[in-house]
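pipeline: protein-struct stage 2 | run 1193 | RING-type domain-containing protein
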Amino acid sequence: MSGEPSSSGNICDGLDDVEDYTRVNEGEEKVSWDRFNRVSDLMQKGNIAFRENRYEEAISCYSRANSIKPGDPIILGNRSAAYIRISRFLKQRSASASEYRPLNGLDPTTHAELALKDAEKVVSYRSNSVKSYILKANALILLERYESARDAILSGLQVDPMSYPLQATLQNFDRTPATICRRHGKPERTDDFDCTLCLKLLYEPVTTPCGHSFCRSCLFQSMDRGNKCPLCRTVLFVSPRTCTISVTLNNIVQKNFPEEYAERKLEHDSVTYLGNDFLPLFVMDVVLPCQKFPLHIFEPRYRLMVRRMMEGNHRMGMVDYCDCSFLSISYLRCEPLPDGRFYLEIEGQRRFRIVRSWDQDGYRVAEVEWVQDIALERTNGREELQEMANNAAEFARLWLRRAKEAAQQDRRRLAELLNAEAMMPSSQDPERFSFWLCTLSDRRPQERLDLLRIRDTKERLSRGLIYLRAEEQGCRLQ
Ligand SMILES: [Zn+2]
Ligand SMILES: [Zn+2]
């Protein structure tokens, strides 16, 4: 028999050719040189026959190779492909052709069953090869087991979401009338699409180079404790920055299980996009608004928090060890390091008070109330404050100039001063300005805490000026 049958609607392509048998194979060490040569010869003959559409001859060669070296995925894969070709040919042969030249002993279903048997073995040996799923899907389509074929395609797409033959077949399936492939409207909800880490439907799946898929957040949460695939322990070199979501797999999950996916999204968003008055909390020293500082994040619970913050609204709250200084922080720069740690550069912004707080995956989240200095009611009181702030700004500029001159020999100090100068807020915002003024000199934690608690801008401005004068005098005394 020869002649290539034309492809019909539901045929999964991607079986254009058979695989060549090479020495570089799974389990090669088990085969002696002599056996390898015999298998290799048979495979070569079989492949030539396959390529010349002599499928029965090809099958006979592959079967002999299989008896010398059982369980080889290339041998079984090629034989499966040959069975598929025969089955397809027989199915598409018109009735009149059969009458004219009957083909005794050949029936398409038997061949498809044999193809499936081989394909299933190949899948079990090579679960991360797309080709094995293509074979399985083809055999199942020939057996008219469309729902299982669809599952095989979806499993293959988990391995390689970009596989064109699988994508095309799936699209074909979706266009085919419901009678054929979607008897129940939707594929059955098996746990094939569950993340093995959270045991829920995959949400924003990522597929690792070893072929396993997990929810993006689950994978990185697991990798906070070591850079290995949680399933097969392959060492992974992926980071949240370089790792992208498997778009196709995500679409498949979203399209087939819309309600469950929406639920998963809600769950994800509730820990990522906190409302305006909610902040994840980071426990550290007291920091002032307008103060910039670097932060190394290495603890797993904070890595998780920082990833969510980067995805969410870029803010966190800073509380000190006794839980009494509060400050909201925005990050300015965030560098994910290759080993999963983060280097953050952050800046203090607004003060808050905790209304209530709770544990979220190891770190704390709080509902907060924003705190500001007490607003001045009287018009002349406000004018007085503004004048005081303007004078303080004038003094600060002079102070900075003198300090820079004194620091000519001290590069680090000079850089600090230039940074502070660049961050100087307008004195038109006296509250913010008063905090900046206090960051010019080094303050002890207790002093910083007091500055945060003060709700009188004038008081803070005076303190800032006192600190600067004291520092200048200290310098002169040295
Ligand atoms: Zn998960
Ligand atoms: Zn893996």
